[in-house]
Amino acid sequence: TQAPKLGAPLSSFAADRGLARDLLGQQALAQSDYRLALSGADVAEARRRLALSLAISGNRASAMTALAPLLQHSDVATNRVRAFVLAIGGDAEAADRALDASVPGMSRSLDPFFRRLPGLTPAQKAAAVHLGIFPGRGAAATALASSATTVPSLSVGTPTGAFPSSGEAITSNRLAGIDQLLRNPDSPSITASSAAPPPAPRPHYEIATSTPVHRSVVTVAPAAAGAPKRFWVQLASGTDEPALVTQFARMASREPDLFKGIKPYVSQVSGRSKLLIGPFKSNEDSDTFVENLAEARINGFSWTSPEGQVVRKLQSP
Fold first, then answer.
1. What is the rounded distance in angstroms from the CA atom of residue 93 to the CA atom of residue 58?
2. DSSP letter assigned to residue 303
3. pTM listed for this prediction
4. 142 within 8 A of 123, measured Cβ to Cβ
5. What is the pLDDT of residue 69?
6. What one-character-per-residue DSSP string does 172-236 give?
7. Which of 79, 83, 81, 86 is nearest to 60 (CA)?
8. Does 49 have pLDDT greater than 90?
9. Cβ-Cβ contacts under 8 Å for 227 (sequence gap 6 or more)
10. Burial of 243 (0-12, 13-18, 19+ CB in 10 A)
11. S-S: 48 plus which of 81, 89, 166, 176, CB 3.0-4.6 Å?
């Protein structure tokens, strides 16, 4: 929330925000962030995190599809993620084989880890595969370390690391002081506090209509008369425009507050009609709206119409 206010482009921190959301069990929002990060500096890491998040949410096929472009290079990090995807899906034997193909013998120390992964909660799975934090007997079912919380640790990147049977105490809050630092970035030091940080607010937008909507960040720009480059959110595509009208109406009826004041547009590309909403003032604004769609379990992605591309209002039949 603070990063864009301080001028950071969304693509520069979307992968880390996605990881934070995965650790909170918010896989749909996490995946939206990882997809935004695919336009950032570390595309490979964004793909690996997206694949793990998809596997955690039970979509193994899509996880493998996300990894496919990286598997051609056979790097250790990608093969390890592939093993985790297989293990999360309940196939420990395949996970062992995938890991040994990359680092021979490593599966011996991680096989117990693989076999316990399917029984964890989504947040625990994310903590295990990303941070090496694994719940032990009687340990709190959380990956977020707070004061006096006891969680076991597993060094998943160390081939000789032993699988722990008991917890290692974490006696400090690793997130303490972050809010104070953001409020006063010139402060030379931060005093640790045992108070847990407040939950991050959900991303929202504001539609420029005559009726106030209590959201923030994004405004929809008025449609231009010509056809300049503009920023949109694509909801669907097809060859049957009347069907797109029906599809938009169905989405709007599901989330009337989210779609309040929003009209559908359409643009022809390669013989198909794109169902669009917007235009938005910037790509960052359209990305923020995509996040709100993901929160409402509606698929969408940002699309920029190039200069000269005609976009018109979608008319009801």
1. 18
2. E
3. 0.47
4. yes
5. 86
6. S-TTTTHHHHHH-TT-S-----SSPPPPPPPP-----SSS--S--S--BPPPPSS---EEEEEEE
7. 86
8. yes
9. 305, 307, 308, 309, 310, 311
10. middle
11. 81
Judged on CB neighbours under 10 Å (0-12, 13-18, 19+), 40 is: middle
Q: Go through the chain and tell me how many residues it has.
A: 317
Question: From residue 235, how far is each of 228, 252, 266 by CA, in Å?
Answer: 21, 11, 10
Show the beta-strand stretches assigned E in the chain: 150-151, 168-169, 230-238, 264-269, 272-280, 301-305, 312-313
pLDDT in tens, 180-206: 555 554 444 433 333 344 444 444 443
300 residue type, one letter? G
Write the single-letter amino acid at 88: I
Q: CB 165: neighbour CB atoms within 10 A?
A: 9
* Kind plus residue range of the DSSP H or E element containing 170: none
Over the chain, what is the mean pLDDT?
Answer: 74
Q: CA-based Rg of the chain, rounded to a whole angstrom?
A: 22
Does residue 233 contact residue 277 with C-beta atoms inside 8 Å?
Answer: yes
What pLDDT sits at residue 101? 78
Tokens of 47: 């793909």
CA separation for the pair 94, 238 (Å, rounded): 38
Amino acid residing at 125: K
Q: What kind and span of H or E run contains 239?
A: none
Indicate the pLDDT class of residue 10, thresholds 50, 70 and 90: confident
Nearest CA to 287 out of 40, 70, 27 is that of 40
Q: Which two tokens stand for residue 240?
A: 């049957």
Residues 6+ apart with CB under 8 A from 225: none
For residues 77 and 84, the answer to whether their CB atoms sit within 8 Å is no
Q: From residue 121, how far is each of 32, 91, 175 by CA, in Å?
A: 20, 17, 22
